[in-house]
């Protein structure tokens, strides 16, 4: 199955487990609204690509891992959009969850998605509970209070902040979890896959800065020019458009070179180059590097 | 070790894993503040009591299960206290987390505690990953969007609400998780332990209604008379003080009678009677039933 269809089907199955007639309807509607229609599903597709390079011998576990990662990503977006943080009215081209369902349900939808991520992993264990325990460790650290998304968001409330630490927690951690989890789901050792995810997280951050500078707000489903307006650090502000595009290219080459030995290394290398192209909107792809 | 000291030590060890120098300080301070000093730790002590009745052969797994349950309980209190829900200024006799640290950090502290609960379970697996997978299923369902705490809180946003369903999700689910998890942590079958937790959850709800009616706000660390003031349903409003106290006594007897066959059934029965007494403040214990 094509990876985007595969992840959407896996997420649908996960959400279906909570969206029955005995659940509070607004909450489960909001949880579904927060994950469908999705964005590019970059992280779960990365998880699949690594699992396939490691032979993906338990696809139901890989599905659970990829789903957990995407649910946690979406949960973080729901909470980040809340009035006390970004106070964002729109997300992916439609009203944010708290605008559509109210703040209470938005807080709870985020909580519910976090919990569902772990429940989904526990359901898929079958005869491989040790893989699930590994995956829960990987995934929980990537959203946790030390180096995970929760930590990343919390650094915004501190007076002194190390930009690299902040971006690694806020963006890099879930990319690193995607590669580690892809390997762990396929029964491979996850440790050596971390670097690939970290570098791709950095690449994605640069691409995000480029999109904010010159993307089409209609295609992106959110306003652009926010880094400049809010005086936020960005690769474009630091290096200029061409410099940022060159850094992205360099990161992608670095990522491809970091792939550990595995049966599908060649195919994975090719697909990383292909996928990285999709990070960027057409406006930027057309820019000569 | 005495159960209260045991759970506090286990929670301390869990919080210590996130409170290092590389974590965002406000977030981890707020997480610690949300769990220390604790309340009576009723749910984790119930988890221990059941595990001991089942011989508690892996105390480190029981510690992780009891800790996860208490972290999730505390996370729910932090989020429930937020301005968009109860807007509570005080909790356990001190300013609520959002009053002390701001709303952003309160949202993140709740998120961080949820994630830490699952991470703590994954860390304790050792040679028993299948027990951890069971525990993650039990614990995640008890705080999830169908019958768990998140569902319970979300029912408050619905126009039509079944009181029994609401209370079972909001209060009962975590008690049921405590008994199920105690059994699962000790390698026993958890299913037959659910009823005990559910009945104790109902008993606790009645005791909570009694505390709200006649407790000492100073001892409780929160205002009383809220059920009456907010026109909320309560066993005291339905049955009167004596009627509510009689229902509590009946629930405790029912609970004691529901204990499944296990090596420590006798001791557990005695401790349930003893513990249930502690549910109540002295004002109510003195009331003739």
Describe this structure in words.
- The structure is a homodimer of 289-residue chains.
- The first copy, chain A, has 289 residues and is mostly helical.
- Chain A has one domain (3-285): Farnesyl Diphosphate Synthase, CATH 1.10.600.
- Helices cover 69% and strands 1% of the residues of chain A.
- Chain A has 15 helices and 2 strands.
- Chain A has helices spanning 3-16, 25-35, 42-53, 59-80, 97-101, 103-123, 129-143, 149-155, 163-185, 194-214, 217-220, 226-229, 235-257, 265-278, 282-285, and strands at 90-91, 94-95.
- In chain A, strands 1-2 form a two-stranded antiparallel ribbon.
- In chain A, a hairpin with a 2-residue loop joins β1 and β2 (94-95).
- The longest helix of chain A has 23 residues, at 163-185.
- Chain A is globular.
- Chain A starts with a helix and ends with a helix.
- The mean pLDDT of chain A is 93.
- At the A-B interface, α2, α6, α7 and α8 of A face α2, α6, α7 and α8 of B.
